[in-house]
């Protein structure tokens, strides 16, 4: 028996290590970007990823505005248009605790709503949406991938010298199928204004200013796309105007279940697949069966109606890849809410002994009346949550939490308490004798 336990621990650690380096290598794909050359005055060749010069037109109290890009050393006419555009934009707010806030110490930029302007720039035509689908939905390759992303124009923004900037923040998703943002920098001379995007301990810098991209700043549109849960910031613009279009990126479901439908990736070729395969083939690995848990690396709105409906299809990056690997091994894998042990006071009443309270399925936030500081009420909270205490062999550590569950509290003041949950991939490992390991 002791021997079996040792084998299980050894193999679990080796999967965990392989998973760690797999996630690390995949997590550098949380952002991608590119360049679209403009052909001034000419026609873009049909089918090429180049665009003609761009014209921006907008509503203005002083008559319609028009500005043609690229804006190099601006002509007198362009200078006038640029000033008019800057005048016609409003200060840009940002979301804070559900409110739109204007605060120039946090964001100094201006905006124009999409209803007030039009521009002949189409990210679909230029292959940008296809690229995003390929890179940020790595498991939904082939046709499913290219059909799976919708880019919806959101705003035009200007970050202007001497000090336009936007401090680190994460974008507020407009719906639960939004998975990311796309920023397009229109060719207009500027310096600074680097966009830095971070995920876990990685970061990517997109420098579209003259020093960072040279001539490109005047001859090409440049773009970046990243997942919604990645923190990002715009450094100070020190010269000129940094003019951007922002788009919200959505998954479009209904083109086949994206999860597990992975023609573009051969999961069997991945070292992580081999490690798990070898462990399963070893009769001493979790000989009596049990559960493996992998905390999701990205954040999902897993306790909202949309999130409940669209997971696992909308898993991102490495989460989707790990999901596909376990699925390919014929294992029962699902996304489950796990009660967070540190944030929930009522765990104090339990002798949890290394166990986790695992939800039987994803559920929406719930409001219950249970919740006195007594055992019985804590039990009721757990019953409402719907799950079981289980011993889980964790392969990773938790990363982000959502409020999963809300209940009343009684004290000197009535109130509510938030119960935090996090989303994890939960794998059922059958006992060794019942395991059907697919042929290599
Ligand atoms: O302009 C950029 O590069 C990013 C802007 C941004 O973060 C936002 O609009 O939320
Ligand atoms: Fe943002």
Automatic annotation (TrEMBL):
GO terms for molecular function: metal ion binding; oxidoreductase activity. Residues 150-251 form the Fe2OG dioxygenase domain. Belongs to the iron/ascorbate-dependent oxidoreductase family. It comes from the Eukaryota. The lineage of its organism: Eukaryota, Fungi, Dikarya, Ascomycota, Pezizomycotina. InterPro entries: Oxoglu/Fe-dep_dioxygenase_dom, Pro_4_hyd_alph_FE2OG_OXY. PANTHER family: FE2OG DIOXYGENASE DOMAIN-CONTAINING PROTEIN, MYND-TYPE DOMAIN-CONTAINING PROTEIN. Keywords: Iron, Metal-binding, Oxidoreductase. This is Fe2OG dioxygenase domain-containing protein.
């Amino acid at each position: 028996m002791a021997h079996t336990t040792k084998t299980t621990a050894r193999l679990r650690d080796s999967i965990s290590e392989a998973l760690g380096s797999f996630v690390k290598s995949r997590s550098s794909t949380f952002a991608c970007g590119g360049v679209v050359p403009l052909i001034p005055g000419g026609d873009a060749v049909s089918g090429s990823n180049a665009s003609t010069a761009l014209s921006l037109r907008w509503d203005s109290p002083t008559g319609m505005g028009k500005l043609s890009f690229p804006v190099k050393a601006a002509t007198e006419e362009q200078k006038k248009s640029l000033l008019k555009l800057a005048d016609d934009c409003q200060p840009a707010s940002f979301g804070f605790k559900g409110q739109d806030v204007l605060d120039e110490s946090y964001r100094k930029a201006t905006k124009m709503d999409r209803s007030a302007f039009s521009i002949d720039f189409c990210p679909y035509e230029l292959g940008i949406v296809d690229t995003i689908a390929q890179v940020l939905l790595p498991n939904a390759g082939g046709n499913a991938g290219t059909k799976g992303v919708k880019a919806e124009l959101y705003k035009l923004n200007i970050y202007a010298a001497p000090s336009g900037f936007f401090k680190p923040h994460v974008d507020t998703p407009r719906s639960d199928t939004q998975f990311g943002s796309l920023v397009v920098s229109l060719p207009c001379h500027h310096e600074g204004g680097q966009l830095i995007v971070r995920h876990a301990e990685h970061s990517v810098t997109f420098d579209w200013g003259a020093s960072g991209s040279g001539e490109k700043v005047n001859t090409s549109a440049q773009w970046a796309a990243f997942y919604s849960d990645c923190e990002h910031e715009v450094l100070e613009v020190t010269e000129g105007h940094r003019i951007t279009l922002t788009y919200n990126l959505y998954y479009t479901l209904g083109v086949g279940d994206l999860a597990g439908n992975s023609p573009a990736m051969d999961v069997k070729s991945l070292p992580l697949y081999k490690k798990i395969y070898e462990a399963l083939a070893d009769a001493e690995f979790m000989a009596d069966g049990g559960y493996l848990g992998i905390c999701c690396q990205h954040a999902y709105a897993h306790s909202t109606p949309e999130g409940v409906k669209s997971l696992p299809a909308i898993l991102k990056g490495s989460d989707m890849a790990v999901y596909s690997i376990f699925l390919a091994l014929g294992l029962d894998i699902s996304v489950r809410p796990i009660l967070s042990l540190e944030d929930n006071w009522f765990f104090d009443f339990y002798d949890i002994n290394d166990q986790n309270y695992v939800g039987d399925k994803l559920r929406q936030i719930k409001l219950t009346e249970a919740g006195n500081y007594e055992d019985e009420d804590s039990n009721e909270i757990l019953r409402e949550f719907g799950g079981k205490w289980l011993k889980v062999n964790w392969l990773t550590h938790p990363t982000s939490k959502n409020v999963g569950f809300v209940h009343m509290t009684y004290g000197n003041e009535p109130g509510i308490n938030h119960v935090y949950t996090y989303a994890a991939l939960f794998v059922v490992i059958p006992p060794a004798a019942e395991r059907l390991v697919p042929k290599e």
